[in-house]
Amino acid sequence: MTRLITVDDLAEVAAAVGLDALLDELIAALGQALATHDPAQLVTHDRTGFEYRSPTLGLVEWMPALDLGRRVSIKTVGYHPANPTVSGTPSVLATTSLYDTADGRLAVICEATILTALRTGAASALATDVLAAPDAAVLGVVGCGAQAVTQIHAISRVRPIRRVLAHDADPAVAGTLAARLAPVLPDVVVEVVDEPGLGRLLAEADVLCTCTTVAPGAGPVVPEGEHRPWLHVNAVGADFAGKRELPAGLLRQASLVCPDVPAQCLAEGEAQQLTADDLGPDLASLVRNRAEWEGHRARLTVFDSTGWALEDLVAAELVAGHCERLGLGTVVELQPMATDPHDPYHRLLSPAGQANRPTTQPTLTSGALL
Amino acid sequence: MTRLITVDDLAEVAAAVGLDALLDELIAALGQALATHDPAQLVTHDRTGFEYRSPTLGLVEWMPALDLGRRVSIKTVGYHPANPTVSGTPSVLATTSLYDTADGRLAVICEATILTALRTGAASALATDVLAAPDAAVLGVVGCGAQAVTQIHAISRVRPIRRVLAHDADPAVAGTLAARLAPVLPDVVVEVVDEPGLGRLLAEADVLCTCTTVAPGAGPVVPEGEHRPWLHVNAVGADFAGKRELPAGLLRQASLVCPDVPAQCLAEGEAQQLTADDLGPDLASLVRNRAEWEGHRARLTVFDSTGWALEDLVAAELVAGHCERLGLGTVVELQPMATDPHDPYHRLLSPAGQANRPTTQPTLTSGALL
Predict the structure, then answer these.
(1) Does B137 touch chain A if contact means CB atoms closer than 8 Å?
(2) Contact between chains at B334 and A50 (C-beta distance less than 8 A)
(3) Fewest beta carbons within 10 Å, which of A34, A223, B268, B320?
(4) A58 touches chain B (CB under 8 A)
């Protein structure tokens, strides 16, 4: 049987658990998974997919992970940057499927559009918690779409953020950020800055998040300029060949550039501007040995976030566990579980609703068919 | 919105269309897709996945296809050979997801366990229709599980099969084959042969299908021996490194060995025993230029079937089309389509059932949130 977890089911989980608590749980679960990550136990495939320009610029890609002995998780992601403008739908639309490795059945299919935003926020929170100044209060944000909301929320769970300086290439999107944040962060002051104000945003931020849909080749979106010596940057948007958000000078000044997935960051992230030798510890090492890296809190640091299947597995497991506990989601017989395993026609020829599970005794199986 | 097509929905399609007609439609649609296949328009990725021995021997793999400008299709397959014995569930459990490339949403998720058996039968029917003797009446089958049912049914749609000689390593499975075939092929005579009878099965068959779960390294399952000069073999089972069903001598005698996917057959199919130079036309070429290859009908031929994402795309599209026409399946808002695309929390914070689609006007979007 398969548990279907829709966006409304996820809303019920959020209502039952509380959105702050759910995000805290996700940050903790992801931190635990990273700190204990054993690549022989939790195996991930490189993200791959189809990119196209017809009927519109977009891609569909998949991010598989195996938790050996338990689960396979596959998140599939559509990324179509024109969606918000063209159809009012999110640019990222995703689902995560969990397969039981005892029998291969699809155990869970879960909405992952919102989960992607949450887990991306959680990853930035973990990097920020290790590397940012403990009293960081000013958060700069470049790109005010869906990811910005969870970046700001998640970072506010680990640092005492009081003020957000926000910029978006589309002033209308920047203009609604305060309203979108108000339900979860009523006391945070949002100040929108225009393009000439980007220098001030960079200069005043204790933490900076970049989460834009800048086109490949069109970056960076952050200027070169003055910044706090202790600035920590979460560079979230770049996940595509040629796409970058940070100027090379800022990256080169950093005392640490930490990738989530080194090879992927070198191919698609900010690290495209660097070489492997320039990279610091990956996110798992950063979290596992946090005492070692906290010494960089007084210096410029960058987290290069491109997304990792492990994060999606953790997020889907967390939500699926809540749904199971709370009796949420719809359990359906998507695949033929109650059937004669040797007869693909058993369930097609039994009247719907009358397809009783046959015994595995061959004679009785035949009897059920005749 | 996403259309969920369960096994019961598929049963309703079969009831509405008729199982013979559905299979005929699938054979025709697959033949059309193969004959017109343009690899720039219909792009497939290599099948890949996770194989493991814990908690049981099995694998989960995915087979992606892009129909440029229209759809991405991803079939995910679990293969756990112990399922029928351990839990009475099919060894293959699969689903196919169809994504709309206009916006990336998951448009359809469809049961594909039964569809996999049907499309594998349809592929064998197409190869058989080109290469087997026109009056082929005796069908040999080695391996009498789920795939055998659709192999026999599909081949009976293109050749006047009157008698089936059937062998399975498990006599209990062979013993129920007649009962499983009876609903669709009431006039076909099934004779079960034991292991010593395999020589006679090979000698008398006009067409032979091998569809076993023989372990890698343990094959072949067909002996060397006398056979009709015009024998056509559909070798369906081998799709794993080291797995083979046919003896090397039989393969080498064949006037044509036709792979479905040449590179995959050389890695996982019967063609593991051959080199690229030994291979004849692939299935698409065979179907496209059938007049050219029908000259081999009087000679020994082999179709090496390992499975292709194009087949799964065609099968899922056919069923999805029927469901849309007949109003079958359940349409759910799995992913947040009616939402503020810039606010991942919009649907989490709106009470379930009251989440009206906001206008894309920023000011009204804010209003809806406050």
Answers:
(1) no
(2) no
(3) A223
(4) yes
